[in-house]
Amino acid sequence: MKNAHNIHCACRRRASIAAAICLLAVLCALPSAAQQLDLRLPLEKNSVRFVAIGDMGTGEAPQFAVAKEMERYRQAVHYEFVVMLGDNIYGGHSPADFQRKFEEPYKLLLDSGVKFYASLGNHDDPEVEIHYKPFNMDGQRYYTF
């Protein structure tokens, strides 16, 4: 990824909660805005644009709602990747769980080529998740990109 190779993906629990709260605050404000997103971001040429999410892997309706807003935001801002701050998959970690709790909610983003880079939280199974290709961990618990 151009312009993103020096970003480190090692997150602590507090950062996960703070980032999730910030993202939710931004996303909750979006629907109340005009139909089109009225973004006042600098959006400088060649700037790195990304989203950070955490505590999201439930496969329930609120996750789909956030994913929908993330897609709206992607269309407006054209971010390239998502940093996952942990607690990516709650409950089981079977292939069906990954499909229901990750691939289905974020299908539009994945189909658009948005990359997800995971870090692990206390609800995650490192033995499984580090090998899950869409999390881009390449079999490592710690990595950079």
Summary?
This protein has 145 residues and is mainly alpha-helical. It contains 5 helices and 3 strands; from the N terminus they run αβαβααβα.
Question: Secondary-structure map with pairings?
Answer:
Layout lengths: L12 H20 L17 E4 L7 H17 L3 E4 L10 H9 L3 H5 L3 E4 L7 H4 L16
Parallel strand pairs: 1-2, 2-3
Radius of gyration: 15 Å
Strand content: 5-15%
Give the termini separation: 8 Å
Mean of residue pLDDT values: 81
Number of helices: 5
Morphology call: globular
Oligomer: single chain
Helix content: 25-40%
Strand arrangement, major sheet: 1-2-3
Unreliable residue stretches:
1-22, 29-34
Which series of helices and strands comes N to C? HEHEHHEH
The major β-sheet equals: 3 strands, parallel
The number of distinct β-strands equals: 3
Characterize the structure shown.
There is one protein chain. The chain has 145 residues and is mainly alpha-helical. The chain is built from 5 helices and 3 strands. A 3-stranded parallel sheet has the order 1-2-3. The longest helix is centred in the first third of the chain and has 20 residues, at 13-32. It starts with 12 loop residues before the first helix and ends in a 16-residue tail after the last helix.
Keywords for this entry:
three-stranded parallel beta sheet; 5 helices; mainly alpha; 145 residues
